């Protein structure tokens, strides 16, 4: 799927679950999830006193409930010839949250689904919402074919002992969960053919609780060599760690297919005065969190440019445990900097804080001349990859996830000044990277002044995405590994 990391999950346990959906809204897993989870607690409790027979009942219920709930769909599915594969992959992820894990999970599901149309893998795919909250706005912004696919895959039927479970979420959501969510695997370990965890972190290490949780699984999939290193060094069993890169939908993020969005009508002016002349547009996309380096970005941009420069910076952002008042936050931040307002005024900064539907994201990238994200640490960096697929020249920090795909031929890797300590949140005490403010200034000016070079790197970016991260390539990697797991477990 095609999301920016606008509501990335995976750092803090989500807030308490939302109220039940209003009647008449059609969101597939809501409403079934909650009672089911309560039921699972009840059954697990009673399983302690009544031992195995209750657990068996529960297992039956778990894999039958969707059919009980929806006999019509079940009839349709049993006529579907695709249904003959002997094994199942139950992919559990926050499909309905719209965050980073959500969009990543969607990208795999779409890739694997397409792949299964041509090859005949030995497994069927089933999906289940898990690990984060449902976001109705996100669900309604999805293309209809994706929503239909979600419902179809949700209703598929699997047998416990023939199922490989993929827990695609932060390890706190894995069994037993540290917060209120349907756990993954749903009934603990030992019932399934195998259990795989897919996770990632943005700092230089993995904390002990998460290491312990990783080591309970059969395999841990991480997206980059950076993570193979940090997970191994933190104590996750190296034999369990497998690098599985992330796909990007190159058909969807294809610049030749789109007209640019009219950014002027979307953004709110925060700094600088209005100008409707020719402009060089820098775009950045992030949720409002210190990790994303929005402070470094503003500092570099406002130091380098002024109102006299034919340039504008658009920030697409949304709240992350914060309110929406980004304009004031920016102005306050700039007031505290020891920066003099240039004689010809501040360079222009606009904030877009409204929800941009998935289907419009390519048009947003299309409206920019360059993408910039001086983040302190990234798991993967979806907006970076999407911008690269859209042939934009990209400036992003040369550390953590993006080192998997950024080179000096396909982008502008931003050098790191130093490592700094994370001072708050669950990763307090870990290290991440401080991007160089001076080099960021130079790179932004450089990209603006070297059109042909920047264009060539953007083109190389899309070529590299095509050869390494196309859905077909990545689905092949995932599929091969799942078949390997099935062949090598009894
Ligand atoms: C799973 O269990 C069923 C019976 O419950 C059995 O018929 C089947 O062979 C088992 N499959 C595997 C892969 O062990
Ligand atoms: C980016 O980091 C890698 C090490 O991860 C290093 O080899 C490379 O020279 C760096 N590139 C730039 C432009 O700083």
From TrEMBL:
Residues 12-23 have a biased composition (Pro residues). Residues 1-24 are annotated as: Disordered. The chain crosses the membrane at residues 35-52. Keywords: Membrane, Transmembrane, Transmembrane helix. The keyword Transmembrane applies. The keyword Transmembrane applies. Pfam families: Glyco_trans_1_4. This is Glycosyltransferase.
């Amino acid at each position: 799927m095609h999301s920016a990391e606008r509501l990335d999950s995976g750092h803090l346990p989500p807030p308490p679950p939302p109220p039940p959906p209003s009647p008449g809204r059609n969101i597939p897993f809501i409403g079934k999830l909650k009672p089911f989870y309560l039921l699972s607690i009840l059954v697990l409790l009673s399983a302690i006193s009544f031992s195995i027979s209750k657990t068996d009942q529960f297992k039956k219920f778990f894999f039958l409930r969707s059919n009980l709930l929806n006999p019509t769909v079940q009839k349709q599915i049993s006529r579907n010839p695709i249904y003959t594969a002997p094994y199942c992959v139950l992919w559990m992820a926050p499909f309905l949250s719209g965050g980073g894990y959500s969009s990543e999970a969607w990208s795999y599901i779409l890739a694997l689904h397409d792949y299964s149309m041509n090859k005949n893998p030995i497994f069927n795919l089933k999906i289940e919402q898990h690990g984060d909250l449902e976001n109705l706005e996100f669900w309604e912004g999805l293309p209809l074919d994706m929503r239909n696919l979600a419902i179809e895959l949700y209703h598929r039927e699997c047998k416990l002992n023939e199922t490989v479970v993929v827990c695609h979420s932060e390890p706190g959501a894995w069994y037993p969960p540290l917060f209120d969510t349907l756990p993954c695997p749903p009934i603990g370990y030992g019932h399934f053919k195998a259990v795989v965890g897919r996770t990632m972190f943005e700092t230089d290490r993995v904390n002990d609780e998460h290491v312990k949780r990783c080591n309970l699984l059969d395999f841990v999939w991480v997206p980059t060599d950076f993570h193979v290193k940090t997970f191994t060094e933190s104590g996750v069993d190296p034999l369990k760690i497998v690098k599985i890169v992330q796909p990007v939908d190159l058909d969807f993020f294809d610049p030749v297919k789109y007209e640019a969005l009219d950014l002027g009508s979307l953004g709110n002016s925060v700094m600088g005065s209005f100008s409707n002349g020719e402009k060089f547009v820098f775009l950045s996309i992030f949720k409002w969190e210190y990790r994303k380096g929005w402070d470094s970005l503003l500092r570099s941009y406002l130091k380098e440019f002024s109102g006299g420069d034919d340039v504008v910076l658009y920030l697409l952002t949304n709240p992350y445990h914060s309110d929406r008042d980004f304009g004031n936050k920016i102005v306050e931040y700039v007031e505290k900097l020891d920066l003099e307002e240039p004689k010809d005024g501040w360079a222009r900064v606009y904030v877009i804080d409204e929800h941009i539907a998935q289907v419009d994201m390519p048009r947003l990238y299309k409206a920019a001349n360059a993408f910039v994200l001086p983040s302190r640490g990234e798991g993967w960096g979806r907006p970076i990859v999407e911008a690269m697929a859209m042939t934009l020249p990209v400036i992003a920090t040369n550390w953590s996830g993006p080192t998997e795909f950024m080179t000096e031929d396909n982008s502008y890797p931003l050098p790191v000044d130093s490592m700094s300590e994370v001072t708050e949140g669950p990763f307090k005490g870990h290290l991440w990277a401080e991007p160089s403010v001076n080099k960021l200034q130079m790179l932004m000016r450089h990209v603006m002044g070297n059109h042909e070079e920047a264009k060539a790197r953007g083109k190389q970016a899309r070529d590299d995405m095509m050869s390494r991260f196309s859905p077909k390539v990545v689905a092949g990697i995932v599929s091969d590994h799942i078949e390997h797991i099935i062949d090598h477990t009894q």
